Amino acid sequence: MRALLFERKIAKYAAAAVAGRLAPGRGAKVGPLHLADIDEPELPGPGWHRVRPRLAGICGSDLATVDGRSSRYFEPIVSFPFVPGHEVVGELDDGRRVVIEPVLTCATRGIDPACDMCASGNTGNCERIAYGHLEPGLQTGFCRDTGGGWGLTLVAHESQLHAVPDALTDEAAVLVEPTACAVHAVQTSGVAEGDVVVVLGAGTLGLLTIAALRKLSLPGTVIAVAKHPEQRALARSLGADVVAEPGEVRRAVRRTTRSLANGDVLTGGADVVIDCVGSSDSITDSFAVTRPKGRVSLVGMAGSTTVDLTPLWHKELQLAGTYAYRHEAFPLAFEIAAEANLERLLSATYPLDRYAEAIQHAAEAGRRGAVKIAFDLRTERRR
Amino acid sequence: MAPNNSVRHGRPGFVLEVDRSTPPTLFWHGEGFRLEKLPVGSRVIYAPEPVTALKDPDGAIRHALLNPLGDSKPLPDLLTPGMKLTICFDDISLPLPPMQKPDIRQMVIEAVLDLAAEAGVDDVVLLAALALHRRMTDAELRHALGDRVFDAFAPSGLLQQHDAEDPSKLMHLGATEAGEDVEINRRAAESDLIVYVNINLVAMDGGWKSTATGLSSYKSLRHHHNVKTMQHSRSFMDQHRSELHSSNWRMGKVIKDAGIKVFQIETTLNNDTFPDSFDFLQKREWEWGPRDRASFLAVSKTLDRTPDRLKRGIFHGIKAPHRMTSVQAGEVEAVHAVTTENVYRQQLVQVEGQTDVLTMGLPYISPYNVNSIMNPILVACLGLGYFFNLYRNKPLVREGGVVIMSHPTPWAFHPVHHPSYIDFFEQVLSETTDPLEMESKFEEQFATDPWYIHLYRTSYAYHGVHPFYMWYWCAHALQHLGGVIIVGGDPRSVRRLGFKPASTLRDALEMAEDVVGRDPSITHLHNPPLFLADVR
């Protein structure tokens, strides 16, 4: 079958890192990702199904991988070569459409009894992602055995499958997995009724977090920080009350919360900040605009970064990462996808053989007025 | 002839019709200039030349204090030992540019203080009538009042600046027949006499506006600094058609009825605006001599190579050679009637008929950016608030016409002077440019923001609500015009203001034709020096 394959080739990885630093997304042209004819993945055991991806999104973590920017933290929990792609709407052999919940939990790995995290429903925090009868891999799309959404076939355990309602288009369904991340971010952020909440970043995850905030909580004011005009318009339409540009965030939060300021740092600030960027600048801004004893949820994948933690210490902030989701996030994500008309966030699709172009488009999405870029595998010829 | 009158020696204002031999017209362009070739048939309105100044301003001041207008007694008769006297004076927004030493305020206040001393008055406070403007720095106060006055009053705390956000320093006097709250400075209200020292640069200044606005609070100001008032002031330079004027006069009645005595001293200036090195700015282009052309070239070339910050420093260092043309004192309304005539004597220019397109070059300074940055909101206010309203009878530009302004309009703000302007630009203008909508949706939030209030009271910041007032000042023009174009401005800033950017005047005129039709009539406001168009 045809698939984009990511191989462990140190020289190419280094080339991708250099190219990716020069221009985001350029790692696809020179790095270890390439289009290949490979064998379909084997079904690892009972309860597993073949899934033919229909649409597969390109995520920020995929871009980091392609551009050689991923943290070395991931090395023991991925297995090479792998087919990327974990935002997937596909169809089973019987034609039913499904969205994949990509986290490879104890259930998928045949581990019984399940680890404490899986047993308590916190499957995103599975403690056995490098164990069991599958090769290591934190998710489908990072595991050698399962395949991924950027190929014509992957395999998924029945615990990973979520049926797609007939009324939901593929274009909306491909947004369900990142929406589940947003649901989880909101559910773990501790937003109370009337809170001022700041969402930093208005890429896919930031926009979906705004939609999830409106669906699942009762914030008083949602302040979105968006860099590009299309992002600002979408943020507002998805429920942001105030939309500011990145350089304006401190002033926007100050005037909304009627805070005073000590230099650049607010004396008060937002109750909750959800950082969907994960850069040094965004984390610094998060600390600056959160009120004392407020909470910062780090949703964007931060990687290795340098941040002054003094405000975290002085204001006694809570900083918590949020990764993936619990299984129950998916039904809510389906509801949001339908109600918020999320298919409008899918800006462009590409065939696999134009992958370099697709990845570059995804890397430059905001600047080019786009949000989500995906591969369209519905028209790919199967061998 | 009374010594407080001067005679005209300069030529009156003039309306030039551009023909093929007309040299290019000088447009102000912020801290710089543009020479523009206006289409044949365009009109250029030039200000009257400076009225001859009073030969003996000190004598004229003393004469005014001893020979008051209206039903006022001479000032010495109002001064008694043991009385409480507050001398209020106009703030940094007047005159423009700041005048060369000695400032008129210094001259008048020294004369008043001499009389107070002669009368044995020892409870005297000097009070800068800031309203919601920024506080003046010590250097600015020293320039306005002179060393002698500053050194006598400032160290002992007797030189004060009005604080519209300290409830303990305000007194509510009641409401007008229209229900407008009148709240003014408590020290002034509790004084046995307020002496108000005014500089009347334009016809809007002075009269009851001095005390009813200059010494008031947001609670009081909001009754006339609002969209409805500005849309019904046509123009606010014409007191007979100005709702702003009417509201201040109603408030003046409340002040008077509360038993507060005001001895008003008003002064007018000639429009000798620029020093010798910028003499070409005072002249009509076809009358430029070799020296003017050389000066223009030298200044322009130098400015082209000068960083913005330095350019700003050069221009804000200009001190105008303004001279006093009249001084009158006594009862507020009687004084102001004479003052207004003296302003008209210097500034009125007769203009026949309206125009389709009005062009204007905006200079580096407005009342609210002295020693500061002319941010985009102030650009809009200077063009559409002040210059557009420099008319009597009818606006210079017809209804549905277009205003073309020339200014770099940088996305730049003075962080100390204009903090709420930054927020206004980022939040309010990105949502709406409709004055009514922003008034209902955002004004109160900004007016009561504790951070802005803190900065207004303790730093040198304009009040949080001030940028709204700047935009309301444009409300009449925004309602009247079919379009606004800014030539040579930062396109992002211009679009944020809701206007259209053009890179050249030619482009702007072509764009204007889309609104007003082909071959429009064009009139250029050659301003400053200031004038007031009497449009027939």
Task: Tell me about this structure.
The complex is a heterodimer of chains A (383) and B (536). By secondary structure, chain A is of the alpha/beta class. Chain A has two domains: 2-177 and 326-376, Quinone Oxidoreductase, Chain A, domain 1, CATH 3.90.180; 190-321, Rossmann fold (3-Layer(aba) Sandwich), CATH 3.40.50. Chain A has helices at residues 10-22, 27-30, 60-66, 106-109, 116-119, 170-173, 176-188, 204-216, 229-238, 249-257, 280-289, 310-314, 329-339, 355-363; strands spanning 2-6, 33-37, 48-57, 88-92, 97-100, 154-157, 161-163, 196-200, 221-225, 242-244, 261-262, 265-266, 270-275, 290-298, 318-321, 346-350, 372-376. In chain A, strands 3, 4, 5, 6, 7, 16 and 17 form a seven-stranded mixed beta sheet that branches. In chain A, strand 4 and strand 5 form a beta hairpin. In chain A, helix 7 crosses helix 8 (204-216), helix 7 (176-188) crosses helix 13 (329-339) and helix 8 runs parallel beside helix 9. Chain B is an alpha/beta fold and 536 residues long. Chain B has two domains: 14-50 and 347-535, 2-enoyl-CoA Hydratase, Chain A, domain 1; 57-269, Rossmann fold, CATH 3.40.50. Chain B is 37% helix and 20% strand. In chain B, a hairpin with a 4-residue loop joins strand 2 (25-28) and strand 3 (33-36). The two termini of chain B are 32 Å apart. Residues 1-6 of chain B have low confidence and may be disordered. The A-B interface holds A 242-245, 248, 251-252, 254-255, 258-261 and B 422-423, 426-427, 430, 445-446, 449-451, 454.
